[in-house]
Design brief:
The protein is an alpha+beta fold. The protein has four helices and four strands; from the N terminus they run H-E-E-E-H-H-H-E. It is globular, with a radius of gyration of 14 Å.
């Protein structure tokens, strides 16, 4: 395994074992629940918007290392972003995990999220990596039904 792959694996394990922003949120302006029927992963995303920006975001849930680390890194990535910036980040992330790093221009905006580029090789894991993101989108759209990973 290359040094870069080792670093990526360490980042996923770290965020899985010590997830950031893993807590319920009092005062959330938006909230959504998500579920991956393939493996049973569940996540709840809490968002507090202020002045058109994500002032705070947190999550609760139970799932595999990919699912948990993706949710953790999501919370770090979208804090301070506008709704439009968060949605754009979702689009780029989703393309990365479904199409792979060779077909998506990652760029500096993706930051640590680039670690999930290898997930595209494992279709079942794509749903794990994207669950929190689909749930964030449902929260931003104020959807009441549970977000379910379809891809």
């Amino acid at each position: 395994m290359s040094d870069l792959q080792d670093l990526y694996q360490e980042l996923i394990i770290d965020h899985s074992k010590r997830p950031r922003n893993f807590r319920p949120m009092d005062g959330a302006t938006q909230h959504a629940d998500g579920y991956n029927p393939l493996c049973g992963d569940k996540v709840s995303i809490f968002v507090r918007m202020e002045n058109g920006r994500v002032a705070d975001v947190s999550f609760l849930g139970a799932g595999c290392a990919i699912s948990t680390s993706s949710a953790s890194l999501l919370t770090e990535a979208v804090k301070g972003k506008t709704r439009e910036e968060a949605e754009k980040l979702f689009e780029v992330f989703h393309r990365l995990v479904t199409e792979g790093p060779d077909k998506v221009q990652v760029g500096p905006g993706l930051g640590k999220l680039a670690v999930f580029g290898g997930v595209s090789k494992y279709p079942a894991r794509v749903k794990c990596a994207s669950l929190a993101w689909h749930t964030l989108k449902a929260a931003l759209d104020e959807k009441k039904e549970q977000a379910v990973t379809t891809e």
